[in-house]
Amino acid sequence: MTDIKQGDPGGGVVAAANSASKSTANGTDQRSVKRVVLASFVGTTLEYYDFFVYGTAASIVFPVLFFPAGDATAGLLLALATYAVGYVVRPLGAALFGHFGDRIGRKNVLIATLLIMGLASALVGVLPVYGSVGLLAPIMLVILRFVQGLGIGGEWGGAALMVTESDGKGRRGLLGSLVQVAAPVGLLLATGIFSLTSALTTDEQFMAWGWRIPFLISFALVAIGFYIRMKVGESPVFAAAEEKEKEQREAEVRAPLIHVFKHYKKELALAVGARIGSDIAFYIFAMFILVYGPEHLGMDPSLALAASTLSAVAQSIAIPCFGHLCDKLGRRPVMIGGALAGIAYSFLFFAMIDSGSTFLVLIAPGIGLAVVAAMYAPIASFIPELFATNVRFTGAAVGFQMAGVFGGGFAPLIAMELIVLTQTGFSVAGYLSATLVLMVVCVALAKETSKISMTNAGK
What we know:
disordered N terminus, Growth Hormone, Chain: A, MFS transporter, MFS_trans_sf, mainly alpha, MFS_sugar_transport-like, cell membrane, transport
């Protein structure tokens, strides 16, 4: 298998996907690569939709219906704690599904994660609330959140690998960025459906039954994702390695997680450090406004929700642009540039939100997520390129999801506590900036991997 050479990305996402899909360098034809890209994007979008539906409900619904308390802030913190459970369990899901993804292949694991995530989310929509069953309600909620975290823990690694291991034109950054677009598109769907449901119901109707609709929609979405994923074949790089190096693989990766921690400690640490900052930045710029605006500034919740929704649109556009750029310039310059811009913008972001101007509030999260796109778009190629094929699923998934624990998992609680202690958003900006400095250091220490083939990556 020959090394991948850099091509001219040319005319945007569609042209790149079409051009890359014409290659047979990895044993794939035009249609199969298109199916892989579509299946990875759609499936991961649906899973992020499920995750963000929960996050949105944790901010505006669960504190009232599942964690009633005399102190409204205490109820909110309890709801956000259940949100964090989904992040904390992600590395376990990454290790579990990564093991099977490296041992038996990527495709079947992706189908399993889709079903687990989607059905857990849909079942939230039929849970009884605290007023009906007491403490059993939050217990069941936490259990389903745990299952959600397991599913998404294995989802990202498989989706990123299916795309990057199918590319034969040196456009892994661009095609991999389409997996990253799934996060803002999932956020867009979640906040959009919540906004629509809220607009079509009264406050009493929304709290009584309207909030369940976004969760119940997951039943239909998971069926769509399942159908699409059943149509794709196995990753060609994995299939080739399995065919040609079966005896060696059996000897080396009987326990992929142990192999990663033994032989890829540096790469794993760099993957975690390179992703934490972008994860926190995503939460602060896109989701924190749903809490900070109404709770701290007295902002209309509909304005905060609209701003979050618009930010998802901005990032959906920006991610493929930076994916294109990281194929031309390399992963490191784009990610470091995004992190430095994020440090500068974090303070301006809170100044814009605190201004009280409707216009500034609406555009501030969008600008923030456009900046995050520079850090986030290359991740789907940068992290998998750190690991060899026989442990790539485990290494990439565990690295990505461990960062999520320290990033998105604890970010809501840390940000809320900083606001309570300091009464200013600039303390949150300082917290975000510190994590982005860590990102700059880790990316600078990593090798540039944009011009190597996936068969030689991690060696």
